[in-house]
Amino acid sequence: LVKKDTYTMHQFTAAIRSDLKFLDYVPMLFISAKTGQRVNKVLPLALQVQEERLRRIPTGELNRLLHEAVARHPPKGSQRHRLRFLYATQARTDPRLAPLTDVHGPVSAELRAMLEGEPLAAAVLVGLVERPGGLHLVLTERSDDLRDHPGQVSFPGGRIEPGDAHPAATALREAHEEIGLGPDLVELAGYLDAYLTVTGFIVTPVVGFVTDEFVPRLDETEVREAFEVPLDFLLDPANVRMTLRERLGATFKVYEYRYEGHRIWGATAAMIVAFRDFIK
Q1: pLDDT for 156-204, tens place per residue?
Q2: CB contact at 8 A, 191 and 124
Q3: Which of the residue ranges 16-25, 94-103, 138-147, 241-250 would you say has the lowest mean pLDDT?
Q4: What is the tens place of the pLDDT at every residue in 202-235?
Q5: What whole-number distance in Å separates Cα of residue 259 and Cα of residue 230?
Q6: Which of 6, 140, 244, 245 allows an S-S link to 82, with CB 3.0 to 4.6 Å?
Q7: Sheet strands (E) in 29-133
Q8: How far is residue 218 from each of residues 83, 115, 143, 151, 270, measured CA to CA in Å?
Q9: What percentage of residues in the chain have a pLDDT greater than 70?
Q10: Strand 25-28 and strand 201-210: pairing?
Q11: What is the DSSP letter of 271?
């Protein structure tokens, strides 16, 4: 959603503070209308809460309220740093925010087009199995013959099919097909926040505890190898590094682990980091 009016950061935050006092906070991402450069990181603005109650507002309603605030507070004068109001998201409900906040430098037209398109829905199983040394995470190395992400390390999972009742059903079905993990061997624990990949998939991570009776049986047309990584290794910040990678005409922050010859990076590493931060 694009307004013709432009704003300085000071003008816009002042408008929000004066108009929308019932919000607990507004995650703000400012992007220069002239250069496409991100001006700041997500900026939580502490606002007065009406009747001391927190409210969660649907993203569509938040957009409407913010646009009305923009219309009531047109920009005044010529400022050195002018900003365009694009659209509003809520950090914990709208997965489009993650690619935007991971961008280093300009937000490209290709990235904006991807964010405005219809993503492909997928789900993966974040499977935790108890071993003598503690909990381990079940991962796979994909076949080189696959169309999507060949040869990369990933969680068991895939696209959500019309017959899948919910993302957990997808994750369990795919894990059974790819590595022979029967649904009866998994105790579901819940979901992590959906993750939007730069390749246009919106992935729901499904967390489950896997019985130690599990022995992989691979579908070699999809999976070259199944392996396990100690959870303690993945939870240690010293074992993950951040690099930069170009995609869709933009430069992104990318997480990467190295474990026993395996390179765990990209969306899989990002979801592991999100899981680490969640359980902490």
Answers
A1: 999 999 999 999 999 999 999 999 999 999 999 888 888 989 888 999 9
A2: no
A3: 16-25
A4: 999 999 999 999 999 998 888 899 999 999 999 9
A5: 10
A6: 6
A7: 43-46, 83-84, 103-104, 120-131
A8: 52, 34, 11, 15, 25
A9: 64
A10: unpaired
A11: H
Question: How far is the C-alpha of 98 from the C-alpha of 255, rounded, in Å?
Answer: 13
In this prediction, residue 25 carries a pLDDT of 45
Q: How many whole angstroms separate alpha carbon 99 and alpha carbon 232?
A: 27
pLDDT at 41 over 50: no
Residue type, 262: H
The three-state secondary structure class of 82 is coil
Query: CA-CA distance, 141 to 274, in Å (whole number)?
Result: 21
> What's 53-69 look like in SS3?
CCCCCCHHHHHHHHHHH
The two structure tokens encoding residue 74: 């047109």
Q: Could you give the CA distance from residue 174 to residue 6 in angstroms, rounded to a whole number? A: 47
Closest to 137 in 3D by CA, of 261, 267, 270, 226: 226
- The Cα–Cα gap between 95 and 99 comes to 8
b/e per residue 207-229 (b: at least 16 CB within 10 A): bbebeeebebeeeeebbeebbbb
- Tell me which DSSP letter residue 244 carries: E
Q: Which residue, chain included where needed, has tokens 């957990």?
A: 168
Question: Token digits for 131?
Answer: 């071993």
- Asked which of 86-90, 183-187, 267-271 is least confident by mean pLDDT, the reply is 86-90
